[in-house]
Amino acid sequence: MTTRQDCLDRDAADPLGVVRERFSLPDGVIYLDGNSLGALPVAAAEAVRDVVERQWGGDLIASWNKHGWIGLPQKVGGKIARLIGAEADEVIAADSVSVNLFKLAAAAVGAWGRRRVVLTEGGDFPTDLYILQGLAGMMPEVELRVVAPGGIEAALDDRVAVVLMSHVHYRSGAVREMAGLSTAIRAAGALSLWDLSHSAGVLDVDLNRDGADLAAGCGYKYLNGGPGAPAYLFVARRHQAALRNPLSGWMGHARPFDFVDYYAPAPGIDRWLCGTPPILSLTALNAALDAFDGVDMATVRAKAGALGDLFIERVEARCASKGLVLASPREAAVRGGQVSFTHPQGWAVMQNLIARRVIGDFRAPDVIRFGFAPPYVRHVDVWDAVEVLGEILDTESWRDARYQTVAAVT
Question: What is the mean pLDDT of residues 90-103?
């Protein structure tokens, strides 16, 4: 059985140990919610201060050229590309995940003639489904086909234009097998569209190796870009000439500063821009991505798996017979950077944990989630978090009325 000293020894030998110093973490807090909002990188705070005070404050509008603001979407996209197995000219930072999924799904439907079916699974991240419902509502010729989990391949036919899937399931942390599904979708003549929100920055994603066609993801979870950070999208080079951005805003124009009346899409990935880039938040994300400098993503994934394995081991030993049921895959190879358990009093248990400065999160109706961001979460953090969880369940301190009121959670 793993001891706390074993955890300290593992941390001392951890090749990612020095990366933790790149983050500003509150004293005494065990932060296991990087799968919802990443911790603050030191460099991001410094960069935002500089762009506000020196660039915007001192150079005003000249900063678009003088400080390279106009090229930030491409610069940030290039940094993300390295983390997801793409080329720099296949990724651009823009908008939100929801907007990017709409753009990509609509473009895919529009490019395939008689193919008008958008295919996805039920029980996936709700906003992804909402976006597709909105698309189908706007375009009566589009059919949204929602199948039961695991039913994608059986539902493929010659009417399917695009298939939207989350690479890592938001509730369980289960990882879909990207290469096999992408191959099956391509063989059926459709395009694969992957939501990478819970995998980029924690798994060794390789979109080009695995044959993905399209993808989108957020900047605020494992990429640590800050609350509401810009998202990004990926379009494989082989599709860039054929697909058109349905939100044909001026920043996606081939000559945005000619101010002509007729829209002409920019070549390549640039056509997926729409409105003016949000420079303050892009600056934070750009600086945050530097925390991955010199970091090998296979090492990150290996540590995420080890932290999750340790958490499961410790919970099942320390909290046995306390009502917790594992809701994530047990095998690290098919689990993302989080571990979920169910508990009948999940909300109250999590609120009690947060009050004890162990921060995870809750998903209705009964799921408590714990995210393990390898750049800054240590093995000893996992050990200590489970000790606190065990004390809460032993004493049933979650029964305190302070932890019973259900409020909105993000």
Answer: 98
Band of residue 49 on the pLDDT scale cut at 50, 70, 90:
very high
Nearest to 175 by CA among 202, 155, 151: 202
Q: Which of 22, 271, 301, 369 is catalytic?
A: 369
To the question of pTM greater than 0.90 for the whole model, the response is yes
For residue 329, whether the previous peptide bond is cis, meaning omega lies within 30 degrees of 0, is no
Catalytic residue among 195, 213, 270, 381: 195
Annotated catalytic residue, options 221, 303, 314, 335:
221
What CA–CA distance (Å, rounded) separates 221 from 402?
28
Active site residue 116: no
Helices (H), 38-155: 42-50, 63-66, 72-83, 97-110, 126-138, 152-155
* 322 among known catalytic residues: no
Q: What is the mean pLDDT of the chain?
A: 96
Q: Cα–Cα–Cα angle for 187, 163, 366, nearest 5°?
A: 135
Name the catalytic one among 23, 31, 102, 220: 220
State yes or no: is 255 an active-site residue: no
Residue 178: which of 141, 140, 129, 212 has the closest Cα?
Answer: 212
Sign of CA dihedral 237, 242, 248, 252: positive
Which residue, chain included where needed, has tokens 């420079």?
279
Alpha-carbon radius of gyration of the chain? 22
What is the predicted pLDDT for the residue at 407?
Answer: 55
Give the three-state DSSP class for 29: coil
Among 107-116, 203-212, 215-224, 271-280, the range scoring the smallest mean pLDDT is: 107-116
Residue 103 a catalytic site member: no
- Token readout for 85 is 């197995």
Q: Is 303 a catalytic residue?
A: no
What letter represents residue 265's amino acid? P
Residue 390 burial by CB count (10 A; 0-12/13-18/19+): exposed, middle or buried? middle
Asked if residue 266 lies in contact with residue 253, where contact means CB atoms within 8 angstroms, the answer is: yes
Alpha carbons 10 and 296: distance in angstroms, whole number: 18
Q: Which of 23, 31, 102, 125 is catalytic?
A: 125
Q: Which helix (H) or strand (E) holds 359?
A: strand 358-359
Nearest CA to 215 among 126, 333, 72, 83?
83
